[in-house]
């Protein structure tokens, strides 16, 4: 039970990280600059953890000669993280977490069914397909209807485009997890795989920010002092990756996914509530329905 509780706590990190990185964007000026800082902080954090865990033998050389896609996890992570920063102001915390979760689960089923990225093949069964339908029902319950919280300048069409983007970002996250999982097997350490992913991600963001001619600067929105906590998004992301690596051997992948997703959804509802947004019964029911679908997909 303690390990499951730790999984829920790890899941709470994700919506907090999105909120922190969104605040960082307000000071740096662009989502790509805030992603760069977050990835850089996360890379340093993972370097320290990986050095302590592996004794400095990261095993990265074992991945040389593998298919090119083995190195794409970091790029997919960049898209997913930056996408969440873009989504948050338009969709709020709940939808920013729930929509990528739906994409993550659906893409996970495709990866499992086809054995993509050298993952163990797990054919799609009626029970697993039913779980996917239940998840979609929960997502619709949360994002549809008059209670959805769009920004005033967002039209109905643009709002649904943001929601579609959130689903796609979740597909990228599932692909990143599968790629990093295989990379972890090759290097002999999931922490080393996460370090490689973050290093590639930060390298891509350096190039992107150079092309966009962003110069490091920290502004004070509306003249207010910048809070210290806006710098810890990368640490939270690194701890989440490391936490998953520690939980899976103890409680298995299925329970780890359920526990962390439950924590993410609960955290997103709490954050929306703390920001003054109205949390409706429809959203709470939707979260519960999604959890039921996840259990059907992962545990049955």
From TrEMBL:
Domain of life per record? Bacteria
Would you tell me the Gene Ontology cellular component terms? plasma membrane
> One short Pfam family name for this protein?
DMT_YdcZ
Report TM segments. Answer: 36-56, 68-91, 97-117, 129-148, 160-179, 191-208, 228-247, 254-271, 283-299
Q: Does the keyword Endoplasmic reticulum apply?
A: no
Question: Which keywords appear in this protein's UniProt record, sorted alphabetically?
Answer: Membrane, Transmembrane, Transmembrane helix
What SUPFAM superfamilies does the record tag this protein with? Multidrug resistance efflux transporter EmrE
This protein is called what? DMT family transporter
């Amino acid at each position: 039970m303690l390990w499951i509780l730790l999984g829920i706590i790890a899941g709470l990190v994700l919506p907090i990280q999105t909120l922190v990185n969104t605040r960082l964007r307000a000071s740096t000026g662009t989502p790509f600059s805030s992603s760069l800082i977050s990835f850089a902080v996360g890379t340093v954090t993972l370097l320290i953890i990986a050095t302590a865990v592996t004794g400095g033998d990261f095993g990265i050389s074992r991945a040389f000669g593998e298919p090119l896609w083995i190195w794409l996890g970091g790029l997919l992570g960049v898209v997913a993280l930056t996408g969440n920063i873009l989504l948050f102001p338009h969709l709020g915390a709940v939808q920013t977490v729930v929509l990528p979760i739906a994409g993550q689960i659906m893409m996970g089923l495709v990866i499992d069914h086809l054995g993509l990225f050298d993952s163990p093949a797990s054919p799609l069964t009626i029970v697993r397909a039913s779980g996917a339908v239940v998840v979609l029902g929960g997502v619709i319950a949360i994002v549809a209807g008059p209670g959805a919280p769009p920004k005033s300048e967002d039209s109905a069409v643009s709002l649904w485009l943001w929601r579609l983007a959130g689903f796609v970002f979740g597909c990228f996250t599932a692909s990143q997890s599968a790629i990093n999982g295989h990379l972890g097997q090759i290097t002999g350490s999931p922490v080393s795989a996460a370090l490689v992913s973050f290093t590639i991600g930060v390298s891509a963001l350096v190039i992107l920010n150079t092309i966009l001619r962003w110069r490091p600067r920290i502004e004070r929105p509306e003249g207010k002092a910048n809070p210290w906590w806006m710098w810890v998004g990368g640490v939270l992301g690194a701890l989440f990756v490391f936490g998953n690596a520690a939980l899976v051997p103890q409680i298995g992948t299925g329970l780890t996914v359920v526990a962390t997703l439950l924590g993410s959804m609960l955290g997103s509802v709490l954050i929306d509530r703390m920001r003054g947004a109205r949390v409706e019964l429809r959203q709470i029911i939707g979260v519960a329905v999604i959890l039921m679908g996840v259990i059907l997909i992962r545990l049955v």
